[in-house]
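fold description:
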Amino acid sequence: MEGFKKILYPIALTKMSPVVAPYVVTMAKKFDADVHLLHVLRRFDWFVDTYVLDPPKPDFKRIASDFESQLQSEVEQKLDAFVKRHFNDVRVAKAMVDSGTEYKRIIEYAEEEGIDLIIMGTGATLQKLVFGSVAEKVSRLASVPVMLIRSGSK
C-alpha cells in the first residue's frame, strides 16, 4: 500500500461533524490526499410516490419536492461554511450534497470517484436504534478501508 490519495468524509452536519473533521485533516496531510465531502439527504418522494385513485389535497408530492429543494439549498450553504471553517489547509476535491439512501450513495460515490479511504463518525445510540447505523453498513459493505470515529474519541 502506497497510501491514501482520495479520502471520503460522508458528513452528516451534526454535532459529531467537527469531532471527525480533525481526523480527516490529519490523514489528508499525512498522505497528501484530496478530500471529498458528501452529505446525503434522504429522498422524500418515496413517502408520497404511491398510487392513489384520487390524489389528496393538498398536493403532498409537490410539497415534498419543494421542501427537498429548499432543504438541499440550505444544506449546501451549511456544507460550504463547514468546509471553510474546518478544511482550509487541505485540498478539497469535492464537497457536495446528494440524495438517496445514505449508505448506498456513500458506497456508490466511493466507487465512482476511486476513493481509497472513508472516514466517518458513528451516530448516536438512539439514532442507531431507530434508523440503523449508516457507518456500520458502510464499514461492512465498502470495498475500501473505513475509519470510524466514535463521539467520545476526542
